[in-house]
Amino acid sequence: MEKRDYYEVLEVEKTASVEEIKKAYRKKAIQYHPDKNPGDKVAEEKFKEAAEAYDVLSNPDKRARYDQFGHAGMGGAAGNGGPFGGFSGGMSMDDIFSMFGDI
């Protein structure tokens, strides 16, 4: 399966600030969160895709590599299969849920 552009996933411009990326991610994560969409596999995949995009675009080093090389620049981190099917190892589910502590 071809990976979508991370900027498209979060619906932000390539020039987006870290704050704009975070805001866009939070919107997507809330929209597709498994608790809001129980049993919806499509929503679950979109949630994971948004988390992966955020993991890369919120990290200056990963973002620079992604901007230069695309998904190929991510090495084995993106799209490595396993229980999260391409979910990047740099962010745990606890990290994701902790972002919503103030909601």
Automatic annotation (TrEMBL):
Residue intervals of the J domain: 5-70
Coiled-coil intervals: none
Signal peptide as annotated in the record: none
Record bears the keyword Repeat: yes
Key words, A-Z: Chaperone, Metal-binding, Repeat, Zinc, Zinc-finger
GO cellular component: cytoplasm
Pfam families xref list: DnaJ
One MF annotation (Gene Ontology) recorded for this entry: unfolded protein binding
CDD domains per the UniProt record, alphabetical: DnaJ (cd06257)
SUPFAM superfamilies: Chaperone J-domain (SSF46565)
PROSITE patterns, per database record: DNAJ_1, DNAJ_2
Keyword Repeat tagged: yes
Entries under SMART domains matching the protein: DnaJ
Protein name (record): Molecular chaperone DnaJ
Annotated organism of origin: Bacteroides stercoris
Upper classification of the organism: Bacteria, Pseudomonadati, Bacteroidota, Bacteroidia, Bacteroidales
